[in-house]
């Protein structure tokens, strides 16, 4: 079974299904509380930019998350 590549355009909901531990990782990075039940989370990029992260930070998140698979 091949891994699904995580990108900045991956929806947070899909990311959490693929990598349940991504919730803890993202919360440790300062990206919103994913367990709070927000109905729409958006993409990894939009969630990160909402918290003030830049493209370099987002690239690091993508790299780290792909390593978690």
Describe the model.
By secondary structure, the protein is mainly α. It has one domain (12-67). 51% of the residues lie in helices and 0% in strands. Helix 3 crosses helix 4. The radius of gyration is 11 Å and the shape is globular. The mean pLDDT is 87.
Name a few traits of the molecule.
single chain, 69 residues, mainly alpha, 4 helices, 51% helix
Query: Uncertain runs with pLDDT below 50, 5 residues or more?
Result: none
Which series of helices and strands comes N to C?
A: HHHH
Strand content: under 5%
Enumerate how many helices there are, as a single number.
4
Tell how many strands the DSSP assignment holds.
0
Tell me briefly what this model is:
With 69 residues, the chain is mainly alpha-helical.
Topology:
Elements: H1 12-18, H2 22-29, H3 44-50, H4 55-67
């Amino acid at each position: 079974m091949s891994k699904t590549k995580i990108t900045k355009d991956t929806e947070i909901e899909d990311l959490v299904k693929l990598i349940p531990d991504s919730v803890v990782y993202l919360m440790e990075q300062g990206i919103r509380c994913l367990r709070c039940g927000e109905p729409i989370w958006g993409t990894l990029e939009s969630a990160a930019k909402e918290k003030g992260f830049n493209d370099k930070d987002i690239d690091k998140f993508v790299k780290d998350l792909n390593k978690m698979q």
